[in-house]
Amino acid sequence: MNFNKNRRDFLKMAAISGAGLGVANSFPSLYAAIPHNHQVPDMLISGITPYFIPRRAASWWCTIEDLQWSQKKIVDKIKRRAENFAKAKIDTAINFGFHIRFDFSNYFGQLHGYYANVCEELHKYDIKFMDHYSCNHVERPRGEAEFKKLHKGQRHHVLLFPDPIAAQFAQYEGYFFKDICEVDLIDGGRGYSKQYQMETFCHNNPNFLDMHRKYLIRLAKEVPFDGIEVDDMCTYAGLTTCGCKYCRERFKRDYGSEIPPFGQKDFWGDTTKPMAKWGNYENPVFRDWLRMKTDGIVDHVKMIKGVIGDKPLMSCCSSTGPMSLNVISLDLEKMAGSLDFFMLENVGFNVKSVDWMGMDAEALHQKDIAQKRGNAPAMALSYTIYEKGGYLGWCLSRFWGVGNWSSTLNQRLEEDPADAMEQEDVISPSNLWEVHNSDLNIIGAKDLVEARLVSNRYCRDNGWHTKDGAEHWDKVKAWSVQLLKNNVGYRFVRSEELGNGDALTKETTPLIIDSVGCVSDRQFKAIKGYLAKGGTAWLTLPFGTHNEKGFKRDIPLSATLLKEKYKHLMVLDGAQSLPQLISSGKFKPVLKQVKGDNRWVARIRIYNDGPAIHLMNTALTPIAHPVLKDNSGTAVLKDIASKITDNELTFEVDTTRISLPKLSVMSPELGQAQRRVHMAGHQNSYDTVTIDLADVKLYAVAQKTK
Fold first, then answer.
1. DSSP H or E stretch at residue 455
2. Is 398:614 a contact under the CB 8 Å cutoff?
3. How many angstroms separate the Cα of 67 from the Cα of each of 51, 198, 213?
4. Of these four, 81, 375, 487, 606, which has the most CB atoms within 10 Å of its CB?
5. How far is 385 from 188, CA to CA, in rounded Å?
6. Which residues lie closer than 8 Å to 271 by C-beta, 6 or more apart?
7. pLDDT one-digit tens code per residue, 60-85
């Protein structure tokens, strides 16, 4: 069969129906403009507004039989699923499967034909398609135990990898995979990710980059995708990769240092501990090593963006705050300049998912990264096996004000349950309710901000800790939970904004600075200027013990700051101080709960037609599946109950800061019913608002009455 002809036919049909033809056809001069050293033109790095906004995304699951495209069975399955996606009001389908993409290099013809067919069917319903794959790994289990582990826990990748003998000759575009792998500094062997049984390609290797670039060009020519997620922009093999000649040359060129032999304690630290505890952060060469590793990844992402042009680019990110990210060189903030969409892996499918408060900081941090990238779309990816887990993910996306990416993950289990649901069936009830009852447009919506929480990545980059071993992100998360519990709207101030005096003084809300050990001179100047102009800040020491490169200051900046005796600078004992600040009247939230169970939390967001109050339950009880467990041995989430019995909530609302319209309470749990919110008379600049959440367990919204 002529696969190339079939792909051309599908592309032609997609063009007639208005679908994009791929950047290679639309921008033929783009590729000539990309030099072989992968420097990307400024016009591409600066960012282009994406032409579609994912709000109700869902995973498009693939299986090994899909490689048998274009058999009638596969083509018919594509048609049925596209129709069902449309019925479920899914607006963006994101590929899941064939994940370790270069393991399928022998089958790219069939694979791209399949994806072109998928795009053709989805585009009939104006559903966008995003490809999603990992470019820098190949699955190479080492030994029988690793082989079985891979087949037990990673079936969702769609597994098709060569045996060890054939793997020696696996290649694409003339590049043998074994020759472009990272080099492990421990033994000189190929970099290996033990958690995923993968060998890892080096982001600084020009042969790998050329291979990936050529694949992207081919993919864009043969598949009319609307956007792409290139996954795993990190180094899963960990701290000891890479020792190849390209990484050694770059480290010497950019940082003037040699990579020391493994085990040298003043660099590697105590390697008898788990790898997450390795590294001597007191050594500036080790800190530079971490920077060099992320530099290469950032350049790789720039290259990808240069190839796909105006098509939106996204990468996977399960976390943005903790120092543990240094181990795998994952730094979304550094690569953000080349990305158009931002995604947070949100909740898993086990019973721990209901304890969601700890994710609020990550969600809003990710959202701020997106907003600072020209209000780029953000979405939360939630995994589930059953419908209630999918509903939980939808609820959290609504509460956070981001798009929802719902993903079943049956194939992550050793065996799929007999009652496994199709992706579209899991998310259809929530999507349909939203479209018909509460189709709030998150684009342009603004959270009510009453406090600004500082998250300074310099602390993470340099491995900074307090004397008791806490890292800066620990303090950030503690504040996030307290702000959430007290219904205080907040946003993040990250390192760049913290160094911008004009940006800081544009707002009068308190600036929360807790255990920010690494502070640049520019940031310190901006903070002092803000305070000198009457700005309010809540400071928890230590502060400014080191500079942005991790070098210790002779005198902490806090000493200078406190000498100035700024009128609105308060020194606090961490996040635990917030309830006392509120009870003493030193801080007055817009929403103050005076009745009902305070384990319901509220967040105000302003939309085009006015403010709405989103309410989320923090006292959820998981109902475990009686048999199913995930690969960690934790029970799979089957259903969700609530510990709350007093669901009639009363708030005092400060009308000097926000004016609420007439509101009605809605929730998928109430079906089509709407309940009027009781609003008592105005008194002392406050309105009293009573919200009845009877029969609601997870989520509700009080929005403008139509």
1. strand 451-455
2. yes
3. 30, 22, 23
4. 487
5. 41
6. 262, 263, 278
7. 999 999 999 999 999 999 999 999 99
- Strand pairing class (403-408; 56-61): parallel
Here the tokens at position 112 are 């791209």
What is the DSSP annotation of 274-320? -GGG---TTSHHHHHHHHHHHHHHHHHHHHHHHHHTTS-EE---S-S
CB burial of residue 671 (10 Å; 0-12, 13-18, 19+): exposed
**Cβ neighbours for 529, distance < 8 A, ≥ 6 positions apart:** 501, 504, 505
User: What distances in angstroms separate CA 185 from CA 21, 179, 469, one per listed residue?
Assistant: 44, 16, 28
Beta bridge partners of 471: 465
DSSP letter (8 states) at residue 671: T
Is the preceding peptide bond at 105 cis, omega within 30 degrees of 0? no
Residue-wise pLDDT for 353-378, tens only, equals 999 999 999 999 999 999 999 999 99
Over the range 25-63, which residues count as b (16 or more CB within 10 Å of their CB) and which as e?
Answer: eeeeebeeebeeebebeeebeebeebebbbbbbbbbbbe
The type of residue at 630 is: D
Q: Per mean pLDDT, which range of 50-59, 136-145, 275-284, 525-534 is the poorest?
A: 50-59
Per-residue tokens: 144: 């029988």
Q: Which has the minimum average pLDDT: 168-177, 342-351, 444-453?
A: 342-351
Residue 414's nearest CA partner among 167, 141, 629, 672 is 629
Q: For the chain, what is the total number of helices (H) and then of strands (E)?
A: 23, 30
Which pLDDT score is estimated for 439?
Answer: 96
Average pLDDT over residues 31-58: 51
- CB of 495 within 8 A of CB of 472? no
Alpha helices in 309-418 (DSSP H): 325-328, 332-335, 360-371, 387-400
Nearest to 605 by CA among 471, 385, 448: 448
pLDDT tens-place string over residues 561-579: 999 999 999 999 999 999 9
Q: Confidence band (pLDDT; 50, 70, 90) for 19? A: very low
Confidence of residue 2 (pLDDT cuts 50, 70, 90): very low
Asked if 181 and 202 touch (Cβ cutoff 8 Å), the reply is: yes
The pair of three-digit structure tokens given for residue 351, joined into one six-digit string: 């019973």
Q: Residue for token digits 């996204």?
A: 314
DSSP string, 227-269: EEEEE--S-TT-TTB--SHHHHHHHHHHH--PPPPTT-HHHH-
Q: Cα 661 from chain centroid?
A: 33
Three-state DSSP state, 405? strand
The tens digit of pLDDT for each residue in 394-416 reads 999 999 999 999 999 888 888 88
Using CA atoms of 552, 334, 178, 239 in order, give the dihedral in degrees to the nearest 10: 30
Stated as kind and residue range, the H or E segment containing 86 is: helix 72-87
- Which pLDDT score, from 0 to 100, does residue 653 have? 96
Cα distance from N-terminal residue to C-terminal residue, the chain: 57
pLDDT band, very low/low/confident/very high, at 695 (cuts 50, 70, 90): very high
Task: Provide mean pLDDT across the span 431-441.
Answer: 97
CB atoms near residue 313 (< 10 Å): 22
